[in-house]
User: What shape does this take?
Amino acid sequence: MQKEEIRLKIDELIKDLISSLEEQLSRSLESIILVGSYTIGKISLERPNVNILIFVNEKMGAKEYLEIGDIFYRTGEKYKEYFSLKIDSLPFRFGIPNIKKEPQLVLTPNILLVAEKNINPPFGIPKNVLEGMAGTSKVVFGYNFLSDIDLTYSKQEFLHWAFYDIGILFKNLLTRAPLSFEVNNNLDLLAHESVELGKVALYWGTEVFLEENDIKAGKHIEMIKNIDSMVNFYKGIDSDLAHSAKIILEAREYFDEYKGDKKKSYLLYEAAFTAIQKVFHGIMAQINT
Assistant: This one.
């Protein structure tokens, strides 16, 4: 299947999914917003991922959550002739592909309660993450709740969020991966979790190790867009971290080379492990000062 056909089928699936969510969750659904590379036309067709924010009201109950899962997998079933579907609800869990087939489309939905808009951080999502989402958002149904949020935050607030996300969520997800499935028979899953968690650790690390004035100037955002810049940045922080960053970012670009090779998949896992450990040490050093 040609890349352009893959893109068209992804577009069809997303439209189909949105239509089903609107129709079947009309009682509780408030808004659907797409964020990330897909919305700005930079989705990788070798490793396509679509991020979806689903905003719901207080009428959302257990039955509706079960229904959302049914909608996603039922929609994916319609397109299994073209690609497999994997649903990752980050940062809480990674899913299992519905079938063994290439290419694989990854959908990353987040279900957010509108009533939690005004807590700190909003919706329980760190503002640095919301900042990235807001910059690539596309409203496809309802109201743009991201437009109401004050996205300013201090370095201390960021360190508090980073301690929890890096030190608890991401570290536990990565260290438990080898217990969640037989890794040698599922190198693709190991590589996928490693590159996703390692990438997030590197992104957070730019803000951990930058000065607050540099963060306000947006230097961390510039680095995220430039692989060489990020690797060079980490060379000035820690040589092992820089080496790990190079592996993770290379694997992100050439994922097919890593997911089927045991040596490379293990190397990627170790790089993600190192990145999370080093960034967490940086967080702890600043919290304790």
Notes: The CA atoms of residues 41 and 91 lie 24 Å apart. The mean pLDDT is 94.
